[in-house]
Description:
This protein is of the alpha/beta class. It has two domains: 13-22 and 263-365, D-serine dehydratase-like domain (Lyase, Ornithine Decarboxylase, Chain A, domain 1, Beta Barrel), CATH 2.40.37; 26-247, Alanine racemase (TIM Barrel, Alpha-Beta Barrel), CATH 3.20.20.10. It contains ten helices and 16 strands. Strand 4, helix 5 and strand 5 form a beta-alpha-beta unit. The longest helix is centred in the middle third of the chain and has 24 residues, at 189-212. It is elongated and about 70 Å long. The mean pLDDT is 97.
Amino acid sequence: MSIEKSWYAVSNIDEVDSPALILYPNRVDENIRRMVSTAGGAERLCPHVKTHKLGQLVRRQMESRITKFKCATIAEAEMVADCGVLNVMLAYQPVGPKLHRLIKLIKKFPKTIFSTIADDAGAIEAMSKAATEGGVTLSVLVDIDCGMHRSGIAAGDNAENLYRLIASLPGLTPGGLHIYDGHISDTDLTLRAVRCEAAIAPALAMRDKLKAAGLAVPRVVAGGTPTLPIHAKHQDLECSPGTSVLWDWGYEQECPDLKFIHAALVMTRIISKPGLNLVCLDLGHKAIAAEKPHPRVIFPTLPDAKAVTHSEEHLVIETARAGELSVGDCLFGIPRHVCPTVALYAEAVVIEEGKAQARWPILARNRALSI
Length: 371
């Protein structure tokens, strides 16, 4: 089957080995524009880089006047700081060697303001000790659990006590509140908004109480991609979407009100035709995120395709169009979850003007760069 002439077509696809992560920078730029517009301005954004892990995309966001970024790993934080970003948040409580790596990072990039999150008194005391011994100051935000129950502490007296602890210890400065509501992604925008507002209300009340007590609460960083338009209505919040830069099939289905466009695909080839209506692709667990149920990838040219088996290096699909396909043919797929899919690839193949023009190493997929 010939490659469909569409926005994702690549004229020199025969030069690209498979499986491959395919990136379309012009579509990334459009997503950044829409992200800024939805948030109400670049200053309202602190986007997460976990989705793409690419310095090239950080710089493109910086060109749109985004100055603050959020990370999940020390490697991501180093990659962002190396781009010249002035405000980097590690949204992951640093424990064990990660804490000492963070201190080293602060010392390596003295012009960058680093912050992190915390939900535990012992971890906060360890941060104070490490920062003091390292001769640096670390901004710490209290991580608020607003219902996801993955990390954080519920807004209230115990969380307020943690905030006061941060304010009292040497080497630390209270940085505000961090709130992630990844459990809220209702398809109905009205219901999503109601749940989001209810989830964040205790944290906003806590912020007001802390301020009334004379404590500085410089920022509240809230939400992810699904709740971006809801948090954007609060002028005193920073929004931290991530997936919106590349977009994927999962959020497209869950949140049809968000009008972002697909900017990253996977390219795979047919390596076998093992039976009637069956096609085997080189798109195994190691090439497409496998933590979600099937379909983990959809193929625009094969809307009827159904996964039959999925293993490390193989994906067998069933389609009535199998007879039109030949071994060696290419297929382009939209990942259900793009973030962990990107992390499976050492590089992204960059498509400009319909042609594979470059390869960008996905450096921050590594757990460590220089620190």
